[in-house]
Amino acid sequence: MNEFEIIKHYFTVPGHRKDVLMGPGDDCALLQVPPHSQLAVSTDTLVSGVHFFADMAPMALGHKALAVNLSDLAAMGADPCWVSLALTLPEIDESWIKGFCAGFFELAEYYNVALVGGDMTRGPLSITVTVHGTLPEGKGLRRNGARVGDGIYVTGTLGDAALGLQQIQGKVTVPEQYRDFVRTKFEFPHPRILAGQALRDIASSALDLSDGLAGDLAHVARASGVRAQLELERLPLSAAMLDSVSREQGWELALTGGDDYELCFTVPEIHRGQLETALAHCGVKFTRVGRMLAGEPGVELMAKGRSYQLSTQSWDHFRSTPA
Ligand code: ADP
Ligand code: MG
């Protein structure tokens, strides 16, 4: 098959969205934006050897390339609608493309996201995905809305994907019964779309966790001009984590490990009750891990009532405002 045939055969799937007036095949996609809505748009590129191992299973890659983008929409509280896909491939390998599409479209169908266009070029393997979502006017969850007194929360458990990566690299030994779990967390992250939508009228700020809680939360602290205090004993760690490494190592993986794609968000005290109801409704577990204080913008770690120092070298990177 040539490239046009590949696009036609694999990337032009019958869509069910009425707001796609023109999908793949013309010069542009034409999309109907609902009235009184704002568009939320985000792009992420995954490069072979930089963001994933060259031999990563194509199905996992197809899933992950879309998942990390949808996670950005989740962090904004947006409803996912459309996606475009730019693929750079060293060669046309149909079995690879089939696997990639299986992972990509399974997730796209789950959230009713339509693939509306893209690009195919030859070169070193790289995948660029752009997602589009909609939001009621003014409802986007930004990073700059946290205020002194707000609680800091996260969804799910933290550090499992980083543990999965370390297991794959042979740096830790995860007990047999948890190996699939941590590997799945690393290769098939699940974007927290429902939680993001539920938080729209409740959270004062939100972002998704791609680089570890400490560094990511520092973005919120700086953008909002507040000081984030985390209580490490509260960090939600999975049974897999607790049975694989020490509690301190678990904290470090949660704070500096990447690829969790959970949400971190802040909530004013007056919305605390609403939060319980809203997230229980969508079946998402969440944990309060700290609060926002006045003071120098940055992240402060506490354990057993004392200040805690990370052993990891990345500490300076998020401790305070960069020079
Ligand atoms: P152009 O020369 O105008 O860039 P292309 O040949 O790159 O056109 O693409 C032709 C059509 O196929 C366009 O509508 C484009 O959006 C679509 N397309 C190309 N690659 C992909 C892809 N990987 N997935 C979905 N649609 C694609
Ligand atoms: Mg093109």
TrEMBL record:
It comes from the Bacteria. Mg(2+) 3 binds at residues 27, 72, 208. Residues 25-134 form the PurM-like N-terminal domain. Residues 147-296 form the PurM-like C-terminal domain. The keyword Oxidoreductase does not apply. Mg(2+) 5 binds at residue 211. Pathway: Cofactor biosynthesis; thiamine diphosphate biosynthesis; thiamine diphosphate from thiamine phosphate: step 1/1. GO terms for molecular function: ATP binding; magnesium ion binding; thiamine-phosphate kinase activity. One of its GO terms (biological process) is thiamine diphosphate biosynthetic process. It catalyses: thiamine phosphate + ATP = thiamine diphosphate + ADP. Substrate binds at residues 51, 259, 315. Mg(2+) 2 binds at residues 44, 72. ATP binds at residues 118-119, 143, 210. It holds the Pfam family AIRS_C. Keywords: ATP-binding, Kinase, Magnesium, Metal-binding, Nucleotide-binding, Thiamine biosynthesis, Transferase. The keyword Repeat does not apply. Gene3D superfamilies: PurM-like C-terminal domain, PurM-like, N-terminal domain. CDD domains: ThiL (cd02194). Catalyzes the ATP-dependent phosphorylation of thiamine-monophosphate (TMP) to form thiamine-pyrophosphate (TPP), the active form of vitamin B1. HAMAP family: TMP_kinase. PANTHER family: THIAMINE-MONOPHOSPHATE KINASE. Belongs to the thiamine-monophosphate kinase family. This is Thiamine-monophosphate kinase. The lineage of its organism: Bacteria, Pseudomonadati, Pseudomonadota, Gammaproteobacteria, Aeromonadales. The gene is thiL.
